[in-house]
Structures are given as structure tokens and as C-alpha cells.
């Protein structure tokens, strides 16, 4: 029997199976966009709830271009290829069949994808396409920015503050 947090994973993420590792407890303190941005204290979403955040000078619209613009504000640029490159931190943006953004995932320094699943848990997974499916759609944009010492330290700090176990660089079972 699967854990309560994963009870809908089979339907929501048909390709995921058991090829992931739980990294945090469920929380609504942050969401997938905030996590990909490197934050864990507030959710990011256009037109979001009062506790949420979206840059004031960006429109409160759920468009791919708007999400790209938000990530560009913190140094990301569009790129080709979601493969691991030691010098670059990468994110992917997912959208549904209507082109509405649904999710973002971040590639760790070790080359493992990390996702915050809504108000549910954070997970690590080997490939971003394991989350393709009815809930998130598919990856529509890939972006990258250079790793800096500050970004590496920040990523480690966020990992320590949010994850229930420190295993981001260990192999994932079934992957």
C-alpha cells in the first residue's frame, strides 16, 4: 500500500511509478514555482493568494511567456536540452494541452530533478518526463543559469531546511 501522500500519484503521474524519493513532508508554505526559484517561504503564482508572490511589474496572467519572464528576472535564460551540465543550474516549465503553465522542476547540482508537488511533498526523480501526464502536461520550456558559489550554498541551505532526508545525490530506486 502506498503512503497517503502518494495515493494519487499513479493517476496523476502515470510514468512515475516508484521512481522517486520523498524529500519533505507536505506543506503549503511554498509551491513548485517558488521551489524552482530557490525559495521555500512563500508560493509563487500569478494572481496568487494573499500569502503568495508574483513580481508586481509582471502581469497576473498564467502564460508560458509570463513564467519565462519571471525566471529571467533571477538570471535564467532559455536553452536547448534538459541534460545535466555541471556549470549550469536548469529548470523546466510544464504546461497543459491548452498551454497554461502547471509546474516547474529544478535540476540539482548532482543531476537529479527535484519537484514540489503542489501542497504535497517534494520529490527527487531521475527524469523530468516522469511527471508528464494528465496533471502537469509536458515540458514546454527549458532554462538555465550558471552555478555560482552563492547559488550552490543557497541550494544546500534550502535542501537542509525543507527536506526530511538528505539524499539528493544518492541513486533513486527503480530509476
Defining key terms:
175 residues; alpha+beta; 7-stranded antiparallel β-sheet; 4 helices; 7 strands; globular; disordered C terminus
What would you note in describing this structure?
The structure is a single chain. This protein is of the alpha+beta class. It has one domain (26-162). Helices cover 19% and strands 21% of the residues. The chain contains 4 helices and 7 strands. Strands 1-6-5-4-3-7-2 form a 7-stranded antiparallel beta sheet. The longest helix is centred in the last third of the chain and has 14 residues, at 149-162. The relative contact order is 0.23. Mean pLDDT is 87; it is low at 164-175.
Which helices and strands occur, and which strands form pairs?
Elements: H1 9-12, E1 21-22, H2 32-37, H3 64-72, E2 77-78, E3 88-95, E4 101-107, E5 113-116, E6 122-125, E7 138-146, H4 149-162
Antiparallel strand pairs: 1-6, 2-7, 3-4, 3-7, 4-5, 5-6
Radius of gyration, in angstroms, nearest whole number: 15 Å
- One letter per element, helices H and strands E, the order comes to HEHHEEEEEEH
Mean pLDDT: 87
Quaternary class: single chain
Using DSSP, what is the number of strands?
7
Low-confidence stretches: 164-175
The proportion of strand residues reads: 15-25%
Shape: globular
What is the CA-CA span between the terminal residues? Answer: 20 Å
Mind describing the biggest β-sheet?
A: 7 strands, antiparallel
* Strand neighbour order, sheet with most strands: 1-6-5-4-3-7-2
**Count of the separate structural domains:** 1
Structural class: alpha+beta
Total of helices? 4
Helical residues, percent: 10-25%
Amino acid at each position: 500500500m502506498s503512503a497517503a501522500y502518494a495515493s494519487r500519484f499513479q493517476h496523476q503521474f502515470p510514468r512515475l511509478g516508484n521512481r522517486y524519493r520523498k524529500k519533505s513532508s507536505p506543506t503549503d508554505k511554498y509551491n513548485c514555482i517558488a521551489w524552482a526559484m530557490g525559495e521555500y517561504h512563500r508560493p509563487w503564482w500569478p494572481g496568487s493568494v494573499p500569502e503568495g508572490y508574483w513580481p508586481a511589474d509582471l502581469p497576473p496572467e498564467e502564460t508560458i511567456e509570463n513564467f519565462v519572464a519571471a525566471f529571467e528576472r533571477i538570471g535564467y535564460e532559455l536553452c536547448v536540452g534538459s541534460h545535466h551540465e555541471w556549470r549550469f543550474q536548469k529548470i523546466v516549465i510544464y504546461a497543459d494541452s491548452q498551454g497554461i503553465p502547471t509546474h516547474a522542476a529544478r535540476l540539482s547540482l548532482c543531476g537529479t530533478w527535484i519537484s514540489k508537488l503542489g501542497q504535497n511533498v517534494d520529490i527527487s526523480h531521475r527524469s523530468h518526463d516522469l511527471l508528464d501526464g494528465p496533471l502537469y502536461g509536458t515540458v514546454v520550456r527549458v532554462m538555465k543559469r550558471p552555478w555560482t558559489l552563492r547559488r550552490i550554498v543557497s541550494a544546500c541551505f534550502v535542501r537542509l531546511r525543507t527536506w526530511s532526508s538528505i539524499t539528493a545525490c544518492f541513486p533513486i530506486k527503480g530509476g
